[in-house]
Structures are given as structure tokens and as C-alpha cells.
Design brief:
Length: about 325
């Protein structure tokens, strides 16, 4: 556990982590196998922890109601995104202005990147997916650090150049944010000025889509990997938004599905207080609230998320 007292003031304004929990399957078992606060928003709740995990095979298990498909629920929320200004789906625009990626990455120890890349082999190359990537700033910065850990500092100006067997994927529900992410990737426009991104990065692709759709998620994982599982999947400040729109059953099914696609799973879960404040903000803007009545796992949501992942065969590791 890494406490983030020094970032407390910044975290008051953005949904970001205050502590870090890292979980992973042991290397011997692995085998190798994030929006700016909209105008008028004075504060956003802080998130309590990061969790990194890994898995064995995942059992299959069901949203809101039998009559509501995932597509219809998410589709309805997307249709009002402009009016909701990110407060219904978490697709905040200009997120990096309020929550810079370089500050967020200060939370993560360098040993994290070494641990993840230590499982990479020629037959199990580095593959990474960021689900809920917003406009891609954090995705690109984190990806650069992973590749640097794999290649070693200073070995080449652009280790993500064509010919390197490293691939990454960013997915977000908002097409506008994905277009911004693609532009960042092409321009190397990152706050850190890292030489890793001094030229376009063909090793990473950004696509719009619903990460809770099993067939879509599987197709995107297949896009970057021939293996059943990829090296790492991350969920940065995304769990609450998925949970709200899917309900308890399908949310935990979603987590199990993600576990089935990766060796390491880095999660930044939003705590209960974040849920409570979603409707406070929507009402303050004159927008209809989201339905939280059927969510029964909020009291210990972070613990429940961790328990769900551990049941998928992951082992917790504190770095």
C-alpha cells in the first residue's frame, strides 16, 4: 500500500488514487502470458486505491434488468453526454488539464513496470490494453514507461518504432475522446515530453466502443494478440461508471471477463463516496439522476472488487 498524502489537494479535484495496492499472479504462474472536469465543476471525489492483479482461467457467469441490454443502457447514456458533461459515463473532456498524467504516474513505483515486463518473452510479447482511456494521455505515458522498462533506458530514441514486437490498445466509449487520443499518438503530444513519443507510435491503437460488450472486448484483444491473454489490462477510474450502468451482477461478470483476458490487471476503483456524489452533481446541473437503488455492493465496493478478482486466481502483491 502506497499512501498519497502529498497529492491530497489535487485528488480533491479529480477522480484519482490515494493509495496503491498491487496484485499479480506469481511469475512462475504467469508464463508470460481515465476526462477533464467540465466547466462549473468545483471538485470531484478522490479514488481510494489502485489494484494490480493476474489470473488463471475465469468461470463464466448476468445488468440492470433482464429487459435492458448493455447496448441499450450505454446507448441511452451516450445520447445525453453533451448535456451531462461527463457526469453520467465518466467521459470528461479535457481531463488531463485537471488530472495530469505525470502526476498520476508519480503514484506508481518503478518496480511495477519491472514486475510486469519480467514476464515478457519472445513467445509472449508485451501487450497492453487500457479500458476507459479517455483522450489517451495517461495511456501513452504509462505505455512508454512499460516499454522503457522492457528495453532499458537510453537504448533507442523511439523504442515504439516499427519492428518492435510491442502492441497496445486504448478503448473509450466517447468517439471525440478517441479522436483526441489518436491525434496525441500521431503527434507525440505528451506533457512529459518523453522521447519515447518523439514520433508517431504505430504500436498503439485507439478505438471507440463499449468495454462491457464481451464480443467487442474479445475482438479488440484479438486485434493486438494471438494469445488468449495479454500482458496487462488497466482500468483507471472506470469501475464506478461500468457498475452504475450494468448493475451488480453484470459488473462483477465484467470484471471476471477482463480477468480472463490478462496476466496482470491494474485497477483504480472508485469508492462509495464517488457514487453518492454522481447524482448530487447531475441534479445540480438539472439533469436526471442515475439509478443507484439496485446496487447492493456499495458499502464495501473496493473490497468486493478485490475479492471478485482474487477468486479468478490472482494473487495480491504489495510493492
Amino acid at each position: 500500500m502506497i499512501h498519497l498524502d502529498e497529492m491530497q489537494e489535487a485528488e480533491e479535484r479529480v477522480q484519482n488514487g490515494q493509495s496503491l495496492e498491487l496484485e499479480t499472479r506469481p511469475v512462475s504462474e504467469v508464463g508470460a502470458s481515465g476526462g477533464g472536469a467540465p466547466d462549473g465543476m468545483e471538485s470531484v471525489d478522490s479514488v481510494e486505491s489502485f489494484v494490480l492483479v493476474g489470473r488463471d482461467d475465469v468461470p463464466e457467469e448476468g445488468g440492470r434488468s433482464a429487459s435492458q441490454s448493455i447496448t441499450s443502457v450505454i446507448g441511452a447514456a451516450i445520447s445525453t453526454s453533451k448535456e451531462d458533461r461527463g457526469h453520467r459515463l465518466g467521459n470528461f473532456w479535457n481531463y488531463p488539464e485537471f488530472n495530469p498524467s505525470e502526476k498520476r504516474l508519480e503514484i506508481l513505483p518503478e518496480s511495477l513496470y519491472a514486475l510486469i515486463t519480467s514476464t515478457v518473452t519472445p513467445s509472449c510479447p508485451l501487450r497492453y490494453a487500457d479500458l476507459g482511456c479517455n483522450e489517451g494521455e495517461l495511456t501513452l505515458e504509462f505505455w512508454g514507461k512499460l516499454v522503457r522498462a522492457l528495453e532499458g533506458e537510453g537504448e533507442m530514441d523511439n523504442p515504439l518504432a516499427p519492428g518492435k514486437d510491442v502492441k497496445a490498445l486504448g478503448v473509450d466509449i466517447d468517439e471525440v475522446l478517441i479522436e483526441r487520443a489518436r491525434a496525441r499518438s500521431l503527434a507525440g503530444d505528451l506533457a512529459s515530453g518523453s522521447s519515447v513519443f518523439s514520433s508517431p507510435t504505430p504500436s498503439i491503437v485507439f478505438v471507440p466502443g463499449n468495454i462491457a460488450n464481451k464480443s467487442f472486448l474479445a475482438s479488440q484483444i484479438d486485434r493486438i494478440s494471438d494469445r488468449k491473454r495479454i500482458t496487462l489490462i488497466s482500468l483507471f477510474s472506470t469501475t464506478m461508471w461500468v457498475h452504475i450502468h450494468l448493475g451488480d451482477t453484470k459488473f462483477f461478470e465484467f470484471l471476471r471477463t477482463v480477468c480472463g483476458h490478462c496476466d496482470f490487471f491494474l485497477v483504480e476503483p472508485q469508492p462509495r463516496k464517488c457514487y453518492k456524489n454522481v447524482n448530487k452533481r447531475l441534479r445540480s446541473m438539472g439533469r436526471p439522476p442515475v439509478d443507484l437503488a439496485g446496487l447492493e455492493n456499495l458499502l464495501q465496493i473496493e473490497e468486493n472488487i478485490e475479492a471478485c478478482i482474487l477468486k479468478c486466481g490472482f494473487k495480491k502483491v504489495d510493492l
